[in-house]
Amino acid sequence: MHILIAPDKFKGSLRAREVAENIALGLRDVLRGAKIDIVPMADGGEGTAEVICDALGGSRLKCKAHDPLGREIDARYAWIEERKLAVMEMSEAAGMRRLSKDERDPLRADTFGVGEMILNAAQHGARDMIVGLGGSATNDGGFGMARAVGFRFFAGDEELARGMSELQKLTRVEAPVAAAVSAAKRSTSQPARLPPQLKIIAAVDVRNPLLGENGATRVFGPQKGAAGDKIDNLERALAKLADVVSKEFGVDYRDKAGAGAAGGLGFGLMSFCGARIRPGFDVVAEAVRLESKMKDVDLVITGEGSLDRQTLEGKTPAGIARLARKLGKQVFAIVGRASGDQEVSDLFDEVYENAQPGTSEKENMQRAAELLRERAQELAKAL
Question: H or E element: which one contains 204?
C-alpha cells in the first residue's frame, strides 16, 4: 500500500511537517509494509514560506522591518536562489502573533513592515515573489505597505503617515515616480521603488472582497480588536482608499475575490504592486509538485487544526480532497476538531477527530501529536 500524507499545520500546536510525521508514525504501527510519502502543505497562511522553502531547497534571509505598531524587528523570508524567488508571509511583520491581546488595534496597526520585506527582497534581486496573506493584525488595505515601497498619501497638502483614521481624509496618492520628482524638488533623498519586472503573487486562503458585509473589516475586524465605531471608521477608510486609487490609477479591485485577505492587503498588493491574486493552495501545490506525487498512491491523508465551513473557501484539506477525487484516490482527514458540517465531511471518505468528549481544547492542543498517532492507528485498522 502506498500512502501520501499531505496536511496543513495545526495552528498553535504543530507545524505541517510535524503533523505529517506523527500521522506516519501511527500508520506504521499498524501497516508495517506500507510505503508512506510526506508532503507538508499550506494554503497561503502561516507556514507557506517554510513549506515552499523546504520543498525547493531554499534558504532563509533576514532583514530589518517594523511590526504592526512600528517597533523594529528582525523579519525572515524564504529565498530560492536559482529562481530568484522570494517567498514571504505578511504575518512575519504584520501578524497577530507580533502583538499581545491588549495591543490589538487595527486603527493603529499597519503593514509598513510587509513593504519593507518586499523592498528588501527586490533589492536582493528577486524576479518573482510569493506573499502569503494570512494571520494579519492589520486592516489597512495595504496603506502601510504602499508607503514603504514609495507611495505617498495626501489629504490636500498634508501627507498622511500612520493611522487608519487619517485615511478617511485622503484626496490623492503619488506613485513612486511622481514622488521621486517631488522629493527631488525638496532636495531630499529619492524614495524606494520596486523594479517594474518584479512579478508578485498574493497567495490567499479566503475569497472575501475589500468592502461590505463579507469584506475585510466586517468579517475579520472583530478578531483583530475592532468593534462598534471602529468597524465603521475602518470601513469608511478602506472605501475612501479604494475611491482615490480608482480615480488616480484607473484600477478598481475592491470587488475582486481575495481583495479583503489580510485586512485588505490583497487589494493593496494588486493596486500598488501589480500583484496577481491566486489561491494559496494552488500556489503551494504547484511548488511542491503535489499532483505528480499523488498520481501513483493508493490513498491520501490530509488534515488541519479545525475542519469547518471556512475549509471550503480554499483551505488545504479541501484542496487536497478535490485533487484526490480528480485522480480517483481515496482521501481521509485527521483534524484537531470538526464542526460536523455535512458538505465539508462529504469531501472525505472519513474524518477522524482528535477532540474527544470531556477534554478541553487546551488539552487537545497539548496532546495533538499523541492524538494524531492514535487517530492514524484507527484509520489504518479500518483500511
Answer: strand 199-204
